[in-house]
Automatic annotation (TrEMBL):
Name of this chain's protein: FAD-binding oxidoreductase
Domain of life the protein comes from: Bacteria
Keywords: Oxidoreductase
PANTHER family for the chain: GLYCINE OXIDASE (PTHR13847:SF289), SARCOSINE DEHYDROGENASE-RELATED (PTHR13847)
Domain (FAD dependent oxidoreductase) ranges: 9-354
This protein's record includes keyword Thylakoid: no
Presence of the UniProt keyword Oxidoreductase in the record: yes
Species assigned in the record: Rhizobium mesosinicum
Gene3D superfamilies: D-Amino Acid Oxidase, subunit A, domain 2 (3.30.9.10), FAD/NAD(P)-binding domain (3.50.50.60)
Annotated TM spans: none
């Protein structure tokens, strides 16, 4: 049933939040235009580790939202069982040695909320998940979460855009920076740097790390804790690793074609310098060190080579929780800004489209409203 109360929508941003929302609106019969500054997935979605999880500790509403997100990926995987860009081979994590090691506490917490977890010693890991160098595991052991997985977001976005096109959606790329046009106190259009204007009843801002600055132009506040992230993609390498590894010095995620995606906060902090023109300088020695750290945790300590490097902001709200929904001070203006964009990508698109199309608020988004920052 078509229950929409709007006649058109424009979405700024062709990352996972923008494209997922657009597809969901198109399914409801809403005419939608997506505009993007460059090609699809050219921002944070194109350089995301894309680990599908709800591991460790966070608020209960955030955990529920992430679990719903993982559920949608399982449905997608059942419909597309042969794709090489969506896998559920589990996740393995361990902490550094010493008093800061929280593996035992994390295991107790995860089991207390029903999150599938196994606490393993180094000697037990080979029998549960392949491809890990057990010598890298610290004395407190590791947690294996069988229900976790990974997705290649550019591949998913391409699939969703094909459905979007089939539903009559319009994708406009390479438009440069866009802005939300507010007239008479409400959002009425999106306008590109070239002056092209796309009018609509609803405007959805899904521009990743740019969201807080863009809403500030309309006098609104969203807390922002966005850091610079560095993602290294390796050249293909035959290796048995299947699980996502989250370790003290490196995160390693299998990727399509026998490649691996690598990241670490320290590598971004030490290896990336922001130039005055907004570009980035990357320290080759830090990249080499990140490759070496990845090799240490992989069975056989393989020689890994760089295929590509992605650098840019990693969207993280100021309080760490998602920011999803309407800017109530400006009717017709909606935002999607969050960490864990991969895990949340499908469910956020579904719930945000529900709100845009119906004008109703979804209860799962109750604690994630943008206005929570207005009083801070």
């Amino acid at each position: 049933m078509n229950d929409n109360t709007i006649t058109s929508a424009v979405i700024i941003g062709a990352g996972i939040f923008g494209v997922s929302t657009a597809v969901q609106l198109a399914r409801r019969g809403v005419p939608v235009t997506i505009i993007n500054d460059g090609p699809p997935a050219n921002g944070a979605s194109g350089r995301s580790l894309s680990w599908l999880n709800s591991a460790r500790m966070r608020s209960e509403p955030y955990h529920r939202l992430r679990m719903a997100g993982i559920d949608r990926y399982r449905t997608l995987a059942a419909r597309h069982p042969d794709v090489n860009w969506l896998r559920f081979d589990g996740g393995l994590t361990w902490d550094m040695e010493g008093e800061s090691n929280e593996i035992a506490a994390a295991y107790r917490y995860e089991t207390s909320i029903g999150y599938d977890a196994q606490h393993l010693s180094a000697g037990e890991i080979a029998g549960v998940t392949p491809g890990v160098d057990a010598r890298a595991i610290t004395d407190a052991g590791a947690i294996f979460n069988p229900g976790e997985g990974w997705v290649d977001l550019p591949s998913l976005i391409a699939l969703l855009l094909q459905e979007f096109a089939d539903l009559g959606g319009r994708l406009v790329t390479d438009q440069g920076q866009a802005a939300v046009v507010v007239n008479g106190g409400r959002a009425v259009a999106a306008e590109t740097a070239s002056g092209a204007r796309f009018t609509a009843d609803a405007v959805v801002l899904a521009t990743g790390p740019a969201v807080p600055k863009m809403v500030a132009a309309s006098g609104q506040t969203i807390g922002d804790d966005t850091p610079i992230a560095l993602l290294v993609q390796t050249k293909p390498r035959a290796h048995p690793l299947r699980a996502v590894l989250n370790t003290p010095r490196v995160a390693v995620r299998p990727a399509p074609g026998g490649t691996f995606s690598l990241d670490a906060d320290w590598a971004a902090d030490e290896g990336v310098k922001v130039r005055a023109d907004g570009g980035y300088d990357i320290d080759d020695a830090v990249v080499a060190a990140l490759l070496a750290e990845a090799a240490k945790v992989m069975e056989g300590n393989p020689r890994l080579e760089v295929a590509s490097i992605g650098v840019g902001g990693k969207p993280i709200p100021g309080d760490g929780e998602p920011v999803i929904g309407a800017l109530k001070a400006i009717p017709g203006y909606y935002v999607a800004f969050s960490h864990s964009g991969a895990t949340l990508g499908l469910i956020v698109g579904e719930l945000l489209a529900y709100e845009v199309a119906t004008g109703a608020e979804h209860p799962m988004l109750a604690t994630f409203r943008p206005e929570r920052f207005a009083s801070r």
